[in-house]
Amino acid sequence: MAKKSMNELINQINSALDGVIETSPLNTNLEESMQYSLNAGGKRIRPLLVFLTLDVLNQDYKKGKKTALALEMIHTYSLIHDDLPAMDNDDYRRGKLTNHKVYGEWKAILAGDALLTKAFEIIADDELLESDVKVKILSRLAHNSGHLGMVGGQTLDMQSEDKPVDLDTLEQIHKAKTGALLQFAVLSAADIAKVDKSTSQALEDFSNHMGLMFQIKDDLLDVYGDESKLGKKVGSDIENHKSTYVSLLGKDGAEDKLNFHKDAAIKSIEQLSSHYDIKPLLDIVELFYTRDH
Q1: Which CATH number applies to 6-290: 1.10.1470.10, 1.10.600.10, 3.30.70.580, 3.90.960.10?
Q2: What stretch or stretches form a coiled coil here (predicted)?
C-alpha cells in the first residue's frame, strides 16, 4: 500500500472530524459548540502522529482512526478550558473567537466536558480493535490526559504563574501538560501494533523528546513568531508572567535546547531503522523543528 502524505492524512482527519458529533434529541446547541472548536483548524499533530507511527510499524493507519479522533477531542477540550477567563483568558484561538466568546463560559465548559467523555466512547465502540487493545488504549489515554498527565501539568503550570520556576520544574510541567498527549499518540500506535518491549521503549523515548521539542518551539514562537501565522497575539506568556524556555535560557539557550531534543529524538527512532522505515517519523521531527505556527 502506498504511503499517504502528511497533507493527505490531515485532510482525512479533518474530514472525519467534520460532523463526528451526532445531533442530540435534547434540542440544545451544545453539539454546535463542540463542533465549532473541533473545526477551528489546527495542525492536527497528535492524530497525525498516531497515523505516522502506525505507518512506520507496518500497520494500516486506518486501524488508528478512532483513537486519533478521540485524541484530537481530548486536545480540543483542553484548549477550550485553557482559553477560559479563569485560566489563560484568551479571546482568539487559531485566528477565530474562542469558544466561550461565541457560546458563553458555561457552555464552553460543558462543551469541553462533552468532548472529553465522547473521546472514550469513540474508542470503546471501535470495531477494528480487539477488546484487550482497546482496554490498554483507554487506560493509557485516561492516565496521560488526567491528573498524572495533561491536567496535572496544567495545574502545575497555573500554580507556577507569578513565581520563579527553575528549568527542572519547567520540564516537569511540559512533559505532563504537552508531552503526555504526544506520548499517547505514539504509544497508542505501539499498542495497536503490539510491538515488543525494546521497540516500545525506543518510541517512548522518541515521544518524550518530541514533546519537549514541541513546547520549546511554542515558547520561541510566542516571543518571535508571526502573529498572522500563529492566529493569536504573541507575547501572551510574558503578559501572564509565565516562565518559559526563552525567559529562563534566552533565545539562544532555548534554541540550543531545541536542537538537543531534536538530535535525541532522531537518535531514539534510529534504533528502529534496521527493522522499519522510519522516514515518516523523521519527517515529523523536521516539521516540529521548522514550524512557524
Answers
A1: 1.10.600.10
A2: none
